[in-house]
Every structure is written in structure tokens, then in C-alpha cells.
């Protein structure tokens, strides 16, 4: 019985190609190929891989040698780390080995730089102070954006402003969510507030309903988090300032916010005495931590999954988030108003008794306390240039003070820079070349004292030439070293 061929399929005898009858066919094809090559065509040539027969070990060695030869000729990217403090173990290392050693320390968060000594050699007259005004009421908080090119400030009037530090111009303003007064007796006031609220809603996205007390920017600069008296945290997209998420969970005012470095994990502290962890990118609540016996005043985070807080119960607490445990540090005589990490093992605090203190993970009491740091005035804020020896503190005594942390963990004063008003917030750039201050007529949490001659706004204090500071940051952004 004959086997039928499926439709559309030829039999074996038909699929065979006919053989050429003479050699002219091959001569013509060769000549046509030469013509095509002359016209610009490319003849297919099989490429031979020189590494096809190498073993896995040989491949590793080859890649390592290529990497070493590549970085040998590059300038040191860690020279924005001028004054890197290398230990005795690095004395016999070559330039490439030293570079690799520094990169490993940088990833672990243990690379330390000495920048304070260079600043200490200068005179106060060499520092340039630029004042920017935009808020109607006192500035309560500031945050530095990616590479220090932009800054954000929050105020008691509920507004948030994005600043271009190089030009001093406002890039964006988020207005507060004003609500009409409940009393209907004052009709003019009611109509005016209602009209303003309507106009603001048409103009763009509105922010908080009360004073803004805390700001934090993610390491990549894409997310801004803000919190305040309305008990909510708003997560903003910094490219268009649209609200990504509104995080609700705290039962009282948000007093502090901090991002874990290189992540979108957000830590929040509140006057309800709790610490909460959030995934800011997805708007997801993660967990709550309890331990403070009174209001939390400030919070900070760094590379590791840890947060440090201080509060009105006169304690500092170092929170180990994965283990849900805490280390308790006592010894303060009054409320601790502000806390900032200096490195993974040390942090600095500002206290209402007028002292600035340095704390360490290995000791339950302060490593060093500088009493009467501002002439006995209440110290309202501190700032630290992370992984360096530079610390700054602010008060209402009319001065910003710069400190050096020496090898014995002591705070030595470098300079007093005149600043009129309450210094409610301090941010120091990563390279330690400028500071951004939130300056106001009154304290960020109340009106116990007022300085009428002060002006509400932000101050940029340049410790080096302003143009060089911003040019360097711009070069980093463009990949120029």
C-alpha cells in the first residue's frame, strides 16, 4: 500500500536540488561575489574566539588582570575623599591594592576621612554665607538632595520648597492644605480661606494640613518624604512632585524621618513614642518598634539596617531592625533634641541643657560631652559629615559652631560663624564643603522664645569657594573625576 504524502509537502525525490551540468555556474558565482565585495558587500568570515579553550580558572585570572590594568590608569575616585585616614596595615600596599582596600571599606561604611583640620586652618572671614528666603513662617527642617545640587526646606506654614543651591532659586513650591475655619461668625475670613483653598487645589498638588516638621530624601534623589503635625507621612516623586503614597499609622505628630542609605526603607519617629519602618517606594508599612517612655524628637539612619533615636525621656536608643531589639544609652540631663550618625558606631546629640555629646555603640554613656557648647543656650540642632571628623551644632545664641572629633573621641571647637536666629536644622554636604541651615525666629517645636530680628529661611554656609563646591558636585553627576 502506497504511503500518501501530506498536502503541501513534497516527496524526497522532489526535494533534491539539481546538480550543475558544467563549471560555468561556479565561475559566475565567484565573479559575482567579487563584484559584490567591490561594491561594498562584506563576505562572511568565521571568527575564531581566542579564549574558546581556556579553563574557568584561566578566565578568572584574565578578567582580574584586565580589571587591574583598567583601574591602574584611572584617577582615584576616592579623592573626593581627600584626607582618607588609612590604618597601619595599608602602609606597604601599592596604589592599586590601596584603591581596592578603600573601595571595600567604602562599601562597608568604614572609610573615614579627615576634613576638619583643613577647615580649621581657615579664618571665619573666608566663609561665605548665602541667605535664601521663601517661607512665611519659621523653617523647621531641611534636607539635601542627590549630590548636594538641590535642597528642600519645610516650615510651620505647611509649605515645602525645593531650592537650586547654585543659583539660589526656587525650583518648586508645595503649598499647604489650608482648610476654611470652622467658625462661621467671621464671614470675610471664611470666604477668603475658602477661596484660597479652591485656588490652591486648582494650581497643583497640596501638601500637609499643618506644620511640616521632618524631611528626608532617598540616596538616589528620586523620593522625598515629609511629615508633620497632621500625623501623616507624604511620599513625593521629586521629578514631578506628585504624591506617590500617604503613609498613615502614627497617632501623633511626625518629629523625624530618615532613609536607610542606598535603599527606599524609611524610618519615622513620632511624639507618640513609636518608631515605624516603611517601604517608601511601594507605600507599604513594615513594622513598629516601641521603647521610648516619652516623645521621640529625632531619628537618623545610615548603611546598616539600624536607626538611632533620641527623645524627651533623656535617652538615646540604637534600634536593630531585623532583630527588633534596642540598645539603651543614658546619661543626658535634659531632653535630647537632635541626633545624627557620624559613622556606623558613633553619633552626636544636641541637648536642652546646652551640651553637645558624642556617643558610641560600645559604651552605655556618652564618650564625650561638651558642656555649655553655646554659652549655656539650648542646643537646637546638630549635623555630621558622615565618615569624617566634622560636626556642626546650632542654637539661638547667634553662632553656628564647627567641631572636630579627634582621635580620643573629644570635640574640639574649630570656628564660630555668626548666624542670627534659631538654627533648627543642619545638613552637611557629603564632601564637607558646605552646610545648609534651617534658620527661624523661633524653635521648631514651639514659641518659648522669639528673635524678631531674625529672618525665616535657609542659609548656605560655604566652607570653600562656592563655585568650586558646586562645580565638583556637577562633575560627579556627569561622571567626570
What would your notes on this structure say?
17% of the residues lie in helices and 34% in strands. By secondary structure, the chain is of the alpha+beta class. Strands 1-28-27-26 form a four-stranded antiparallel beta sheet, with no helix packed on it. A hairpin with a 5-residue loop joins strand 6 and strand 7. It is globular, with a radius of gyration of 31 Å. The protein starts with 11 loop residues before the first helix and ends with a helix.
Taken as a percent bin, the fraction of beta residues is: 25-35%
Q: What coarse outline follows from CA principal-axis ratios?
A: globular
Overall mean pLDDT stands at 82
Strand order of the largest sheet: 1-28-27-26
Query: How helix-rich are the residues, as a percent range?
Result: 10-25%
- Tell me the number of strands: 28
* Unreliable segments of 5+ consecutive residues: 8-42, 75-82, 197-203, 475-481
Q: How many whole angstroms does the radius of gyration measure?
A: 31 Å
First CA to last CA: what distance?
A: 82 Å
Main beta sheet: strand number and arrangement?
Answer: 4 strands, antiparallel
Which class do the helix and strand fractions yield?
A: alpha+beta
The tally of helices reads: 7
Q: What oligomerization state is this entry in?
A: single chain
Amino acid at each position: 500500500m502506497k504511503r500518501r504524502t501530506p498536502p503541501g509537502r513534497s516527496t524526497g525525490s522532489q526535494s533534491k536540488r539539481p546538480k550543475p551540468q558544467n563549471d560555468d555556474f561556479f565561475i559566475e558565482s565567484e565573479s559575482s561575489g567579487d563584484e559584490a565585495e567591490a561594491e561594498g558587500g562584506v563576505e562572511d568570515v568565521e571568527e575564531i574566539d581566542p579564549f574558546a579553550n581556556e579553563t574557568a580558572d584561566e578566565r578568572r585570572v584574565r578578567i582580574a588582570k584586565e580589571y587591574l590594568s583598567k583601574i591602574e590608569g584611572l584617577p582615584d575616585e576616592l579623592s573626593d575623599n581627600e584626607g582618607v585616614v588609612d590604618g597601619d596595615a595599608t602602609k606597604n600596599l601599592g596604589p592599586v591594592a590601596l584603591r581596592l582596600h578603600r573601595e571595600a571599606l567604602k562599601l562597608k561604611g568604614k572609610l573615614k576621612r579627615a576634613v576638619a583640620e583643613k577647615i580649621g586652618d581657615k579664618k571665619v572671614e573666608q566663609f561665605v554665607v548665602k541667605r535664601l528666603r521663601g517661607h512665611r513662617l519659621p523653617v523647621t527642617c531641611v534636607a539635601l538632595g542627590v549630590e548636594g545640587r538641590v535642597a528642600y526646606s519645610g516650615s510651620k506654614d505647611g509649605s515645602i520648597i525645593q531650592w537650586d543651591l547654585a543659583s539660589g532659586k526656587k525650583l518648586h513650591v508645595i503649598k499647604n492644605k489650608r482648610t476654611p475655619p470652622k467658625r462661621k461668625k467671621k464671614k470675610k475670613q471664611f470666604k477668603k480661606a475658602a477661596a484660597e483653598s479652591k485656588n490652591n487645589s486648582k494650581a497643583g498638588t497640596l501638601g500637609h494640613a499643618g506644620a511640616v516638621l521632618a524631611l528626608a530624601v532617598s540616596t538616589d534623589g528620586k523620593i522625598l518624604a515629609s511629615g508633620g503635625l497632621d500625623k501623616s507621612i507624604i511620599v513625593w516623586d521629586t521629578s514631578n512632585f506628585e504624591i506617590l503614597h500617604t503613609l498613615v499609622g502614627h497617632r501623633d505628630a511626625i518629629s523625624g524621618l530618615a532613609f536607610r542609605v542606598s535603599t527606599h526603607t524609611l524610618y519615622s519617629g513620632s511624639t507618640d513614642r513609636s518608631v515605624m519602618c516603611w517601604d517608601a517606594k511601594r507605600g507599604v508599612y513594615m513594622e513598629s518598634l516601641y521603647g521610648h517612655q516619652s516623645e521621640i524628637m529625632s531619628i537618623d539612619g545610615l548603611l546598616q539596617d539600624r536607626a538611632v533615636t533620641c527623645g524627651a525621656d533623656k535617652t538615646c536608643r540604637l534600634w536593630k531592625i531585623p532583630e527588633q531589639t534596642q540598645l539603651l544609652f543614658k546619661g543626658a540631663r535634659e531632653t535630647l533634641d537632635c541626633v545624627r550618625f557620624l559613622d556606623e558606631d558613633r553619633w552626636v546629640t544636641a541637648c536642652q541643657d546646652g551640651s553637645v555629646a558624642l556617643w558610641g555603640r560600645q559604651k552605655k554613656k556618652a564618650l564625650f560631652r561638651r558642656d555649655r557648647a553655646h554659652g549655656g543656650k539650648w542646643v537646637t540642632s546638630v549635623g555630621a559629615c558622615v565618615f569624617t571628623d566634622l560636626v556642626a551644632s546650632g542654637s539661638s545664641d547667634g553662632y553656628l559652631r564647627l567641631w572636630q572629633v579627634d582621635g580620643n573621641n573629644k570635640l574640639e571647637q574649630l570656628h564660630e560663624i555668626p548666624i542670627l536666629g534659631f538654627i533648627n536644622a543642619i545638613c552637611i554636604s557629603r564632601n564637607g564643603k558646605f552646610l545648609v541651615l534651617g534658620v527661624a525666629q523661633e524653635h521648631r517645636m514651639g514659641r518659648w522664645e522669639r528673635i524678631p530680628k531674625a529672618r525665616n529661611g535657609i542659609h548656605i554656609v560655604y566652607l570653600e569657594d562656592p563655585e568650586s563646591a558646586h562645580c565638583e558636585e556637577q562633575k560627579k553627576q556627569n561622571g567626570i573625576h
